[in-house]
Specification:
The chain is mainly alpha-helical and about 140 residues long. It contains 4 helices and 2 strands, in the order αββααα.
């Protein structure tokens, strides 16, 4: 069961990585409410290079999860995948909790398009990723 959860998690990372590459290449579909705003002004304005960096991180997370499941990386020490998966779990837990202002379950800026999507999808997805990564990290064959 944990193996299936890990594969689902890896697919989520791959999907998110591909979306970020699409945006970095100039695509705009779905990009309207993916960045926090304060009224009508964006709080972040990532460059294409920054977006590619995020995509690379998501693909690396996919690799780490698959490595923890021993699907890839047979020559990489298992401790790297174990530690990496715990780091992923913590990072996404922190993202789900948020910065107490613009993102996460405890944000104070509400009523924006981003805030609505953050409540409905982004923060719950981050919490799912955090829990799934923790379960995969604790998994042993």
């Amino acid at each position: 069961m944990i193996r299936i959860l890990g594969i689902v998690l890896a697919v989520v990372f791959a999907f998110l990585g591909l979306i970020h590459l699409f945006w970095a290449a100039g695509g705009s579909y779905g990009a309207v409410a993916v960045l926090p705003t304060d009224g009508d002004a964006r709080v972040l304005n990532p460059t294409p290079a920054a977006t590619i960096f995020v995509a690379a991180g998501l693909f690396a997370a996919m690799f780490v999860v698959l490595g923890r499941l021993r699907i890839v990386g047979e020559f990489v020490p298992e401790m790297i995948f174990f530690t990496g998966t715990w780091i992923i779990a913590l990072l996404f837990l922190f993202r789900a909790i948020g910065d107490f202002h613009y993102v996460g379950f405890f944000k104070t800026v509400t009523g924006t398009g981003f805030a609505r999507w953050d409540n409905l999808l982004y923060s719950p997805l981050c919490l799912f990723v955090a829990i799934a990564a923790a379960l995969v990290a604790g998994f042993s064959e």
